[in-house]
Specification:
Layout: H1 3-26, E1 30-32, E2 38-40, E3 46-50, E4 60-63, E5 89-93, E6 102-105, E7 109-111, E8 118-120, H2 128-157, H3 161-169, H4 205-212, H5 214-222, H6 226-234, H7 240-249, H8 251-264, H9 266-279, H10 285-294, H11 296-303, H12 305-313, H13 317-326, H14 331-339, H15 343-357, H16 359-371, H17 379-384, H18 387-392, H19 397-401, H20 404-413, H21 415-422, H22 427-435, H23 441-454, H24 456-469, H25 472-484, H26 492-497
Antiparallel strand pairs: 1-2, 3-4, 5-6, 7-8
Length: 499
């Protein structure tokens, strides 16, 4: 080892120890910034753009550019480049933003244990033919055995192949989660609609958007489709066998498989797909930007903007107070809108603000309008006709009515009830908190470790404290996650009934 190499290793070790010391001082999942503030680390696949603005808040992070990766929670400003496979190697797993390239030796080569280089195999080919014959014989015997078992079973039941075929021809299923459905429905009837598929409106705008942007969706999500696939599987939005096949394919091919499956399901499948894309949008920067400019909430507000102006103009104060109480508009805008005497001008100011901010804020506007729909004639009927709003309003109405402050107080008052409802199995909830980015990977890992060491009750209490520390918006998302998981936790029904 040269003196320069030794000095470089010593320098790297000092920097590592400093970083480790800062991490321990702030706790797992956090680091100490240059401003002496504990900031939450960026997740794997993302790098730091700027330190956090307050104690315990998250750093500003962006996804690693294509061709780079970070496979751990970090505070790095630059993502290192992906590794390239060497001579005689090929990629077994392509590089993603959260994982480096995994290489393997090409066919006919094997890795030398000493040098690590791929070298030609030195094994003799003797015995290959014998092995092939033995394998073929074994397969033949097993196949014959299966046929014998099936034959005697059918004979016992009084069945014939002809009767079984007749039964299969007359029996169809509309259950999209049936494990026997093919991955891609290509067998069509005389009307060219896949068997078992109900298409109520093949020209829906959402379906057209998905079809027209299929290639973009593959690229945006294919970089690391794990969060997308976990959400689809966790909420049973696709059959289990489709999810398994997508996981095996990986990358853009897995996304293409899911897109094809949902498109084949018609409008209903595309609605479920859109809801899934909306739920994981913050995991994929380009997807989020696309939904912000093409989302259903934005389109709905823009299409009805003239009517909304007329309805709200009659008395804007109801909507204005609702938006302010929920913290949906800044104080400056509230003051300006309140000072405008012309109702039409005030309504136009509010609508322009939300339309310019994109789909997410337009959805918040629609929820606020729901809360005051009885104050404006025509509004209730229009909102009731928005299918996507009903789908996204899975949480109880009270969640949309209460402010973030009130929801945070409610979680304090009901912590004991939550401990009783969740303590048996935290896995489903932790999975959703991780997918929704309510808790970081490190925080989820810490809760699981605490559950093993100190029990479910301590772990649940720690999980609630971590959610509370993330701020008021995360608390509402936490309640929404609990609502979606009522089937996994039956005791939650009582909590929401008393909400």
């Amino acid at each position: 080892m040269t003196p320069w190499t030794a000095m470089l290793r010593l320098l790297l070790m000092v920097l590592f120890l400093q970083e480790l010391s800062g991490a321990k001082e702030c706790g797992d999942g956090f680091y100490k910034s240059s401003n002496e503030v504990c900031c939450e680390l960026c997740r794997a696949g993302m790098h730091k753009v700027m330190d956090c603005i307050g104690e315990g808040k998250g750093a500003l992070c962006e996804q690693c550019p294509k061709g780079t990766f970070i496979d751990r929670d970090n505070q790095e400003k630059v993502c290192p480049s992906c590794s390239s496979c060497g001579p005689g190697e090929e990629a077994a797993v392509n590089c993603s933003v959260a994982q480096d390239t995994v290489c393997r030796c090409t066919e006919g080569l094997k890795r030398d244990g000493d040098s690590g280089i791929c070298v030609p195999e030195e094994l003799e080919n003797q015995g290959n033919a014998t092995s092939f014959v033995l394998a073929a014989a074994l397969i033949f015997v097993l196949t014959a055995l299966v046929f014998v078992i099936v034959y005697f079973y059918m004979k016992l039941k009084g069945l014939t192949f002809k009767r079984m075929l007749k039964r299969s021809d007359t029996t169809h299923t509309n259950n999209e989660h049936d494990e026997n459905l093919p991955l891609v429905l290509v067998v069509q009837n005389e009307h060219k609609v896949p068997f078992g598929v109900q298409r109520s409106n093949e020209n829906s705008e959402t379906m057209q958007l998905i079809q027209e942007n299929k290639d973009n969706l593959k690229v945006w999500i294919g970089v690391d489709p794990s969060a997308f696939l976990e959400h689809l599987d966790g909420f049973k939005l696709i059959p289990r066998h489709v999810h398994q096949a997508a996981v095996i394919k990986g990358g853009e091919e897995s996304v293409e498989l899911v897109l094809d499956h949902c498109i084949c399901q018609g409008e209903v499948g595309c609605e479920k797909l859109w809801d899934a894309l909306y739920s994981v949008r913050k995991q994929y920067v380009h997807l989020w930007k696309w939904i912000q400019t093409h989302g259903e909430a934005l389109r709905a507000v823009q299409d009805k903007e003239s009517d909304l102006k007329l309805w709200i103009a009659r008395d804007p104060k109801h909507l204005l107070l609702q938006l302010m109480s929920r913290g949906r508009i800044p104080n400056e805008l509230f003051t300006k809108a309140k000072s405008i005497r012309d109702g039409a001008e005030c309504a136009e100011l509010l609508l322009d603000y939300f339309v310019k901010r994109g789909n997410d804020d337009c959805l918040k506007l629609l929820f606020a309008l729901q809360a005051v729909q009885d104050e404006y004639s025509g509004l209730k009927e229009w909102l009731g006709g928005l299918d996507f709003l009903r789908r996204l309003s899975k949480s109880p109405v009270v969640l949309n009515k209460y402010s973030d402050f009130v929801l945070r107080d409610k979680i304090r008052f009901k912590t004991r009830e939550l401990l009783m409802a969740l303590r048996n199995d935290l896995t489903p909830l932790l999975s959703q908190l991780q997918i929704r980015n309510i808790l970081t990977d490190n925080s989820v890992r810490a809760v699981k470790e605490m559950q093993v060491r100190q029990g479910s009750e301590k772990a649940t209490q720690h999980m609630v404290e971590l959610v509370m520390a993330r701020g008021r918006p995360r608390v509402k998302q936490f309640w929404e996650a609990l609502w979606d998981l009522r089937e996994s936790y039956p005791d939650l029904e009582d909590i929401f009934e008393k909400f």
